Amino acid sequence: MMNDTMIPELTAYSVTIHDELRDLSALVSVAKRLVNGAFLSAEEQSVADQYAVVVSDEVVEAIRAAIVAGTDPLGAAYCAIRSPEQRRGTGQTFTPVEAVLGMFAWADAQGHAARIVDPGAGTGRYVLHGLRQNPQAIGVASEMDPLVALLLRANASALGLADRLDIRVGDYRTLQLDVIEGRTLFIGNPPYVRHHNISQDWKSWYSDSLKLLGHASSKLAGLHLHFFVKTLALARPGDIGCFITAAEWLDVNYGQSMRDMMINGLGGRAVFVVAPEVPVFGDAMVSACITCFEPGSEDTYIEFKAIDSVEQMLDLTGGHLANKLVAKAERSWSVLLRNKTVVQNEAFVSLSDLFRVSRGQVTGKNSVWVVDDNRFGLPEEFLVPAITAATDIIHAGGRIDNLAALRRVVALPASLEDLDPDKYLAVRDFLQWARSENADKGWIAEHRKPWWRVDMKDIAPQIVVTYMGRRPPVFAINTAGARIINVAHGLYPKVQLPETSLERLVEWLNCNVSQDAGRVYAGGLTKFEPSEVSRLKIPNIKLLAEGTF
């Protein structure tokens, strides 16, 4: 499972593609020459035979010189030849040099490692750097793709590290390790593969493994979480680990088992969360975090730190500490990253203590049910002013107070039999047009009885909040009583707050809630499901009344 390529010694990573490495045959044949007759696994030998062509001595020596100089021409060529789409199914991604250097700096600060294990080695970005920096250490590199394993072997040979590196061609989850004297460092970038591409057998393995550890599990977990479980099984007292993975496990339901392991068993030491705009995985659309752990450790705190640039990954120190008892009680760990004062202050409560959060109504076809004018002459009581775009909230300045500025949703009654003739004719004409627009088709309409019944609830939310965007969510008091469709969520009070407290709450939310409290995707797109909004920490009733926060 390739997920990285080797790094230059201490310089910027080069992705220059050598002119002669434009197809797999040339790439594999150069790698075979660099290995220079050394042992190949049966799988690697099959690849070498399949792609064998003649390459010149000049090309081989030029590639060797580039590897020794600290670049990775073989890995760069591989990623140019095989598109991101071709590599995505096996989780083959790049990480920046800064991440590798920062992760090794963290590991080195914990003490000497006698063995370095890279769980998804690719062409050797992590393990080869570690062996160059630790001349007494040995390495174990697990790589499922035999072609990529051959490239890794070529890099190791060119660097004179082949005798200290044991390359295992196969699935990391089947890896076995010999017992050694000294500490093992597990470090790397486990492949990012979503659960859709994981077999049922391996999903069952993951679930069963967690049950044996006393943790609940979900078969929705990605492959990178499988690697944490396997690492815990391989590790011995004193071993440490440092993986860079997708960050979604911090907050999603299927990440609960990972959060539990960090508290109990995996020995979570630190979590460094990279801002979504920082391109950690290149062409993989996912946000990242660096997770440091010491299996079996009984430390009572976990360090959290936000990483806002590629350069900041060089310094994995200086975060704030969160008590593991507090972390255990949190269903979303993004809050532990954002504000340690909020987490540790009993004066802050979950938003769900004061409000019920509900998503807006789904119409099934906004182009039909959301209208600017009333060209069919529909009765006014069937046209409900509503928030139909995030901009309705974003531009409201913290308060929705003018229904006339909003578009309206057509909310017809379930029965039309009792309508006055004029009203009935207008509704009939509208529904005929709606059918011509296929508004009676689709999952929503077909599961709605009758298909035209868009139920705009009688009770308006007290506060509204945007649902999705490339910015933090925006909150507004809904003074006008506008209804909402599913571009927004509504906050319905469990406790009646004075107007001044509501104003302070909305102001506080708009100033303090950040994107990383939601589900952040690459490029900065963030979704806030009702569950994420419900878990937000807010000042309690007393603080809101006093304005002292």
Architecture overview:
This protein has 549 residues and is of the alpha/beta class. The chain contains 21 helices and 22 strands. It has a 9-stranded mixed beta sheet with strand order 3-2-1-4-5-7-6-8-9, with helices on both faces. Strands 11-19-15-17 form a 4-stranded antiparallel beta sheet. A 4-stranded mixed beta sheet has the order 12-14-13-18. Helix 8 links the parallel strand 2 (138-143) and strand 3 (165-169).
Percent strand equals 15-25%
Distinct helical segment count: 21
Label the structural class: alpha/beta
Spatially, the strands of the biggest sheet line up as 3-2-1-4-5-7-6-8-9
Say how many strands there are.
22
Provide a brief overview of the structure.
The protein has 21 helices and 22 strands. It is 34% helix and 17% strand.
Characteristics of this structure?
elongated, four-stranded antiparallel β-sheet, nine-stranded mixed β-sheet, single chain, 21 helices, 549 residues, alpha/beta, 22 strands, 17% strand
